[in-house]
Write a structure and sequence with these properties.
Elements: H1 2-20, E1 25-26, E2 34-35, H2 43-61, H3 79-89, H4 92-104, H5 112-118
Length: 119
């Protein structure tokens, strides 16, 4: 009976992984390489994202100055834009998968060491 339960759990994990592992897509013909997509309206927004990331890095590198150099036009950093990109890349589906897997394999605090060797 335990083997049947294990088979059902494995089938559930297989179904969940096909539905939930969506942030990274494998690159065809390149073993171990994946892509993650971000959505932008146009090239101008893409340029804004790149510029803001670069300005954020400049500020991070020069923590004492804590500002973008005078030679760079539009010195303000659109933190909202950067956070929006970060949210797009956040793997929420993968966290859902982890929740489902943890529900399939609850950890019994008394047998924690035993459970870790059986997996």
């Amino acid at each position: 009976m335990e083997k049947i339960d294990d088979i059902k759990k494995l089938e559930t994990i297989k179904r969940l992984t096909s539905n939930c592992l969506s942030t990274l897509k494998p690159v065809e013909g390149k073993n171990g390489i994946h892509t993650a997509k971000i959505r932008v309206y146009d090239y101008y927004e893409l340029a804004a994202v790149i510029r803001n990331l670069m300005k954020l890095c400049i500020v991070a590198l020069d923590q004492d100055g804590a500002e973008v150099a005078d030679t760079i036009e539009e010195r303000s950093i659109d933190v909202g834009l950067i956070l929006g990109i970060a949210l797009q890349l956040f793997p929420i589906d993968e966290f859902e998968l982890l929740s489902e897997i943890s529900a399939l394999f609850p950890v019994d605090s008394g047998n924690e060491a035993e459970n870790s060797t059986n997996i």
